[in-house]
Amino acid sequence: MTHRVAVSGSTGRLGRLVCEVVEAHPRFELSARLRSTSLPEEGADADVLIDVSRPDASPEIVERAILRGQQVIVGTSGWSADRLGELEQRLADAPDRGVIVVPNFSLGSVLGTALARIAAPYFDAVEVIEAHHPAKVDSPSGTAVRTAELMAEARAGRPVDAPFAEQPARGELIAGIPVHSLRLAGVVAKQEVRFGGPGEVLTVTHDTHSNEAYRAGVQAALDAIVEARGLTVGLDALLGIGTAPTSPAASGSAA
Fold first, then answer.
1. Domain range for residue 51?
2. How far apart are alpha carbons 131 and 5 in whole angstroms?
């Protein structure tokens, strides 16, 4: 059976790649390329909606797709923990529907976040630096927000040592962790998570050099979406990449 797919944000960098992946997939057919000027009813006959549009437009696009009974893949930034909680509650009223939210389709990025979450309970100081191309309109990136939230969760309420956090130059606090955003020509995407402890610094770095890094992740989301039910967050959940940290209490130390 072939499933029809509509792609919202089809003219963007990621949107063009998503369209290529859909067209190459034997079980899916690209039925609509949607853009900001598309009418709301366009793409209504699709079985699956993939949203890689803009943070301000994404919630309405996703809600409309759920009301239509479409399965949804979201690759748009801006889906914070609070917004994801609202979406999960929304899906409780539609048990036969599924939404997969992927903050980053890159395998390396997902592994970087998993490693950062493992390290987070062991250091008092944690900061995130993310850099993207100048056309990225939102900051911090969805990946940086997700990474900070997962690290804060792993710390189980223990605050990060972030002196002078009230100063604008110290970055935006996400779940108590300073996050710094750069928008530079020549950059596709890069994230560094730096952990500071007595006499040492640990850095977890991931570089994306081209959009090809996202191709396998988009394919994995497509493979999973037809059978998905409820809310699934992260490529790690689709690929079985564990992110559960080891408790510092169990090891008897926390640097």
1. 3-104+211-239
2. 31
Q: Which of 132, 133, 180, 190 is catalytic?
A: 132
Q: Tell me, yes or no, whether 166 lies in a domain.
A: yes
Decide: 129 and 194 in contact? Cβ < 8 Å: yes
The predicted structure's pLDDT at residue 79: 87
Which residue in the list 3, 25, 133, 136 is annotated as catalytic? Answer: 136
Query: Number of folded domains in the chain?
Result: 2
Low-confidence residues in the chain, pLDDT < 70: 242-255
- The DSSP letter of residue 212 is G
136 in catalytic set: yes
For the chain, the average pLDDT equals: 92
The reply to whether 39 and 62 lie within a common domain is yes
For residues 6 and 34, the answer to whether their CB atoms sit within 8 Å is: yes
**Alpha carbon distance 27, 153 (integer Å):** 37
